[in-house]
C-alpha cells in the first residue's frame, strides 16, 4: 500500500488556494493583502550549522500591501506533531528570512495534529534576570481547537479541506465527513 504524502498535499492545497486560506484563517491580513501580487518563493533551506541539519521552510509567499508598492513575506509552517523546540525554530526561521530578504514577515503556524488538545505556544521568549530581552510572537492556527461548524457555510476550499482536522465530538465524525463531501460537490 502506498503512503500518502500529507505534507506535500498540504503545501499544494495552500499554494493553490493561498488567497482563500488567508480569507478563512487570517481575515485581518486579507484586508491588506494585494491578491494579484502573490509570488511563491522557492523552497528556502535553513541550515543549522552546528547540528549539521537542514530545515526547509514549508511555504514562503511574497506579497504587496494593498494600494502600496511595498512588499512583505508570509511564512507558513505546518506542524503535524507537537514539538517543544518548535517556538525557537520559528524564531530561527524568522531571523534567517529577515536577514536574507529585509522585508516585514508575518509568521504563521498551522497545527494539524489531532492531539494534544491543549493550546500550543504562540511565542518564543528569552528572559534574563529581571527583564525580557526577546518576545517573538507568531500566529497560531490550531485546527483541533477550531469548531468545524464555524467553517461549514463558507464556500472556501481550504476551510472545507481542513474541517476533518478541526474540533468535533466523536458522534459528529460522520456529519463532518458528509459535510466535506457535500461542500466538495458544490
Q: Biggest sheet, in brief?
A: 5 strands, mixed
Largest sheet, spatial ordering of strands: 1-4-5-6-9
Global structural class:
alpha/beta
Between the first and last Cα atoms, what is the distance in angstroms? 31 Å
The helix tally amounts to 6
The shape, in one word, is globular
Rg on CA atoms, Å: 18 Å
Q: Give the tally of structural domains.
A: 2
What is the number of E strands? 9
Q: How much strand? A: 25-35%
* Low-confidence runs of at least 5 consecutive residues: none
Give helix and strand order, one letter per element, not per position. Answer: HHHEEEEEHEEEEHH
Chain-averaged pLDDT: 86
Helical content stands at: 25-40%
Model description:
The structure is a single chain. This protein is α/β, with parallel strands linked by helices and 186 residues long. It has 2 domains: 6-145, no CATH class; 146-186. 32% of the residues lie in helices and 30% in strands. It contains 6 helices and 9 strands; from the N terminus they run H-H-H-E-E-E-E-E-H-E-E-E-E-H-H. The chain has helices spanning 6-16, 18-25, 27-32, 86-101, 157-162, 173-185; strands at 33-40, 45-48, 53-56, 59-65, 71-79, 105-111, 123-128, 131-137, 139-142. The strands form 3 sheets. Strands 1-4-5-6-9 form a 5-stranded mixed β-sheet, sandwiched between helices. A two-stranded antiparallel sheet has the order 2-3. Strands 7-8 form a two-stranded antiparallel ribbon. The radius of gyration is 18 Å and the shape is globular. The two termini are 31 Å apart.
Amino acid at each position: 500500500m502506498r503512503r500518502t504524502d500529507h505534507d506535500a498535499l498540504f503545501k499544494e492545497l495552500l499554494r493553490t488556494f493561498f488567497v482563500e486560506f488567508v480569507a478563512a484563517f487570517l481575515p485581518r491580513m486579507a484586508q491588506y493583502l494585494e491578491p494579484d501580487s502573490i509570488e511563491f518563493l522557492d523552497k528556502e533551506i535553513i541550515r543549522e550549522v552546528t547540528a549539521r541539519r537542514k530545515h526547509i521552510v514549508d511555504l514562503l509567499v511574497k506579497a504587496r500591501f494593498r494600494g502600496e508598492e511595498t512588499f512583505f513575506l508570509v511564512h507558513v509552517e505546518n506542524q503535524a506533531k507537537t514539538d517543544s523546540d518548535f517556538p525557537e525554530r520559528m524564531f530561527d526561521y524568522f531571523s534567517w528570512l529577515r536577514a536574507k530578504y529585509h522585508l516585514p514577515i508575518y509568521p504563521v503556524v498551522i497545527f494539524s495534529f489531532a492531539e494534544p488538545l491543549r493550546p500550543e505556544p504562540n511565542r518564543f521568549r528569552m528572559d534574563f534576570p529581571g527583564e525580557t530581552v526577546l518576545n517573538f510572537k507568531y500566529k497560531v492556527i490550531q485546527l483541533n481547537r477550531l469548531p468545524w461548524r464555524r467553517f461549514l457555510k463558507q464556500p472556501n476550499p481550504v476551510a472545507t479541506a481542513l474541517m476533518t482536522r478541526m474540533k468535533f465530538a466523536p458522534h459528529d465524525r460522520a456529519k463532518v465527513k458528509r459535510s466535506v463531501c457535500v461542500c466538495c460537490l458544490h
